[in-house]
Amino acid sequence: MKIAVDVDGVLINLMVEWLRIYNNKYNDNKRLADIKKWAFYEDFGISKQECYNIFHLIKLKDVPEIEPEVYRCLNIINKKHDVDIVTARRESARKELVHKLQTMNIWQGKQYDNLVIVDYEPHTNKKDLDYNVYIDDSPELAIALSSMRSAKKCIVLYTQPWNHHINQYGNNCIARADDWKEVLKWLKQFPCEWAE
Ligand SMILES: [Mg+2]
Predict the structure, then answer these.
(1) Which of 85, 121, 194, 196 is nearest to 151 (CA)?
(2) CB proximity list for 97: less than 8 A, separation 6 or greater
(3) Cα(25) to centroid of ligand 1, in Å?
(4) Tens place of pLDDT per residue across the chain (196 aa)
(5) Annotated domain spans of the chain
(6) Ramachandran angles phi, psi of 195, nearest 5°
């Protein structure tokens, strides 16, 4: 299978660092659980542009990884499947990202094949790429993929506060994983009913 692994919210906890910068700047005390939707900036009372401005201030070296030893899981998956890391960010950020991944022991040729960078918008633009399975935290991508079921694409939705409202049981192409152990479990079961 061709598998697209997201970065933010799946390999690294980008929003932890976004919140730290936001809270400093606005003297606020927001937490991850306050991010309840993809367009969370609307709840925070800031513009989309300001939201992106804060993203662009983030230094990846300050961002915590999502779980210790994710590289072991990716290594297992990439031995059996074709894993690309697919992320929405600026092309100019590629070098910093590759370095960040290396500090997490995630290496091209071992844990993944290609690092693919896509535009930020539309948020669903990954859906048209040539992958069978997406490991992603985006509720918008989950909804988009479930509406194109004939394409036989599935998503393992990595649980985050902003995707709680997506119901895995209501849709056959969405599997939910609370951690990377569960991601592995789903991939072993593939193909199965939820992929039909
Ligand atoms: Mg993400």
Answers:
(1) 196
(2) 7, 60, 87, 89, 115
(3) 23
(4) 899 999 999 999 999 999 999 999 999 999 999 999 888 999 999 999 999 999 999 999 999 999 998 999 999 999 999 999 999 988 999 999 999 999 999 999 999 999 999 987 777 789 999 999 999 999 999 999 888 766 678 899 999 999 998 986 556 688 999 999 999 999 988 765 444 4
(5) 2-12+64-195, 14-62
(6) -100, -5
- Fold assignment, 2-12+64-195: Rossmann fold (3.40.50)
Q: Are 195 and 172 in contact (CB under 8 A)?
A: yes
Phi-psi group of 9: left, alpha or beta (phi > 0 → left; psi -120 to 50 → alpha; rest → beta)? left
Q: State the distance from the centre of ligand 1 to the C-alpha of 120, rounded, in angstroms.
A: 11
* 14 Cα: distance to centroid of ligand 1 (angstroms): 9
- Phi and psi based region of residue 30 (left: phi greater than 0; alpha: psi -120 to 50; beta: remaining): beta
Cα–Cα dist 79/48, whole Å: 39
Cα of 189 vs centre of ligand 1, distance in Å, is 23
Q: Is this prediction's pTM over 0.70?
A: yes
